[in-house]
Design goal:
The protein is of the alpha+beta class. The protein has a single domain, classed as Ribosomal Protein L30, Chain: A. The longest helix has 9 residues. It is elongated, with a radius of gyration of 13 Å. The two termini are 19 Å apart.
Length: 75
């Protein structure tokens, strides 16, 4: 089972993904990738764990999204 990456201080690294451009006119695979990331329109954002699967999806649509790393305190 994959777990989120942890920093030395015990914080979990997450990625906040925000859709910045429209998916109209893009390839169907790109639209599907945006939906898989949980994005439903311009300005929508989603916080996802930093895992290789998520990084791969982000690499498919970098021209449509912006990504920021965030940290969450472990509980």
């Amino acid at each position: 089972m994959a777990t989120a990456a942890k920093k030395d201080s015990g914080e979990v690294v997450a990625l906040t993904v925000t859709q910045t451009k429209s998916s109209i006119g893009t390839k169907p695979k790109h639209r599907g990738t945006l939906r898989a990331l949980g994005l439903h329109g311009i300005g929508s954002s989603n916080t996802l764990p930093d895992r290789p699967e998520i990084r791969g999806m982000i690499a498919r649509v970098p021209h449509l999204i912006s990504v920021q790393e965030t940290t969450e305190e472990s509980r």
